[in-house]
Amino acid sequence: MRLISWNVNGIRATYKKGFADRLEEMKPDVICIQETKAQDEQVRETLFDIGYHVYSNSAVKKGYSGTAIISKTEPLQVVPDMGIEEHDTEGRVLAAEFEAFWLVTVYTPNSQQGLKRLDYRVSWDAAFFAYIKGLEASKPVIVCGDLNAAHRPIDLKNDKSNYNKTAGYTQREIDGLDVIINGGFVDTFRHLYPEKEKYSWFSWRGDARANNVGWRIDYFFASASIIDRVKEAFILNDIEGSDHCPVGIDLN
User: Fold this and answer.
1) Is the pTM of this model over 0.85?
2) Alpha-carbon span 102 to 89, nearest angstrom
C-alpha cells in the first residue's frame, strides 16, 4: 500500500499543471493533500474524473488552507477537524479510518513572519497531539502532512541562521515535534534514513530547489506499533507543481 502526502499550494492551480499525470506517475493508493485553497465543492469539481474517492475539509475563509484525502479504497469513515472550535475553522485536519489504521492528514499553522502566530501554533500542537493519541486508543495512527517545522539541523540547509529566528525552526516548534515522537510516534523517513539530507520544501526564490537549499517540513509519522509495516519512506524531489515535494511511505 502506497501512501503519499503533498502540500499542493492550491489544488486547482496544481491540477492545471498536470496533477492527474503526477498521480499516474506516483501511483498512490491514498494521497493526502494540504493547502487545497478551495471549498469542498471546488475540490470535488476539480478532481471528479481522477478515479479516486475524494474527501475534503475546507476553511471557512475562501481560498485558504484546506485538506483532502483521495483514496482508491473507500474508508470506513472520514472525520473532519479535531472537535475544538478555536482550531476547526481553517480545514487543517482530516482523518480517514481504514481497517488496520487511522490516516490523518494535517496542515499545521505557520508561525508566520515575526513569529506573530507562534503562541497559537504552540497551543495547536498540544491540541493536535492529544487528538491523535485519542485516535490511537482504537487502532494505530499514521499522521502525514505539512507540519511547518524542521525537526533537527539535518532537516534544513541553513540551521544556525534560522534557529529561533525563522518560523518553522524555533525551539518551541521543535519541542512540539519532540512531543509527537516521545509520545509514541515514529518519523518514518528518519527511522529508515537517519543521516540522509533531503528536503521537502523549497522557496521559490534564488533557485533554491535547483541548488538544494530547502527544509524537510513534510512528514509521515506512524504509531510505533505499526512501524514494522513501513518498508520504504521517500521524498519525490522530481515531482513539480508546488513549492513542496510529495512525501510518502510504502506499507506491507
Assistant:
1) yes
2) 22
